[in-house]
Amino acid sequence: xxxxxxxxxxxxxxxxxxxxxxxxxxxxxxxxxxxxxxxxxxxxxxxxxxxxxxxxxxxxxxxxxxxxxxxxxxxxxxxxxxxxxxxxxxxxxxxxxxxxxxxxxxxxxxxxxxxxxxxxxxxxxxxxxxxxxxxxxxxxxxxxxxxxxxxxxxxxxxxxxxxxxxxxxxxxxxxxxxxxxxxxxxxxxxxxxxxxxxxxxxxxxxxxxxxxxxxxxxxxxxxxxxxxxxxxxxxxxxxxxxxxxxxxxxxxxxxxxxxxxxxxxxxxxxxxxxxxxxxxxxxxxxxxxxxxxxxxxxxxxxxxxxx
Length: 307
Ligand SMILES: Cc1cc2nc3c(=O)[nH]c(=O)nc-3n(C[C@H](O)[C@H](O)[C@H](O)COP(=O)(O)O)c2cc1C
Known about the structure:
By secondary structure, this protein is α/β, with parallel strands linked by helices. It folds into 2 domains: 2-237, TIM Barrel, CATH 3.20.20.70; 244-304, no CATH class. It is 43% helix and 14% strand. The protein has 15 helices and 10 strands. It has helices spanning 23-32, 44-48, 52-58, 77-85, 104-107, 119-130, 150-160, 182-191, 205-215, 232-237, 244-256, 261-267, 269-275, 282-291, 295-304; strands spanning 2-3, 6-7, 12-14, 37-43, 68-73, 94-99, 137-141, 164-168, 196-199, 219-222. The strands form 2 sheets. It has an 8-stranded parallel beta sheet with strand order 3-10-9-8-7-6-5-4. The chain has a two-stranded antiparallel ribbon with strand order 1-2. Helix 7 (150-160) links the parallel strand 7 (137-141) and strand 8 (164-168). The protein starts with a strand and ends with a helix. The site of flavin mononucleotide has 21 residues, from strand 4.
């Protein structure tokens, strides 16, 4: 698959997931086969107002990630223009713009999925990015805010210069309820010439085959299906799977290259909840890990676990 001039080795990608798509997780998913790895969303305004440290924390990368996408959010073209030229984005291959986030504190600033309510502004945002970077600029959208307007919106993004679009097959109103409407994603695929990446409820190789068949999309993006199960990328791409314990420990080891032990000990607990969900003895491991007060203690709990 190709986005603008960028050759991607396959068609299955790790989604931006706030609080989870950290450098360690991206690194193992890329090694297991994810063809593009996305950072979680970073604020364009935050970059401008020198919340550099907080934002930089989200934007670490390793060489294991081959095609790296940074996701930014914002609704003011000025800040988008500034963000795409920011030094911190220079290591990324793709700039993705968030037009799907449903969270009230984002929506109330006309950002994320709120941009789907204002097509001219959404187009200005894409143009602001395109005019100031030569990298591919992509958009991640939902089907609409309240109503489904995905085809019109996707065409407008294509007209504004977007090089690819990811469609999460739900409206903002649906949040995460029901099933992603793959049939609506198919309509977008048929309406635009740029590559469409289909997203929503892909958790296995069979889901991947089904969404590709039912939408005709060029690529597939996985979020929740990869949490606790990064091997899903190996299953889909045919790469060898790796033991989960080994992956968890490597995940932490990679984070340690960039973050303090204190930071990891508090931020990794949500990953522990995913990795141990439904596993034998998982509840006990989770309880112990949540009470751990140092990263070394947490690592020992993982090493001694049965996973
Ligand atoms: C905890 C969480 C955080 C998310 N953070 C982001 C984000 O930062 N940017 C974004 O575009 N989408 C974000 N999403 C949406 C996912 O990328 C994806 O579109 C959605 O979960 C549907 O895909 P899935 O069924 O594979 O999970 C997030 C989803 C979850 C559950």
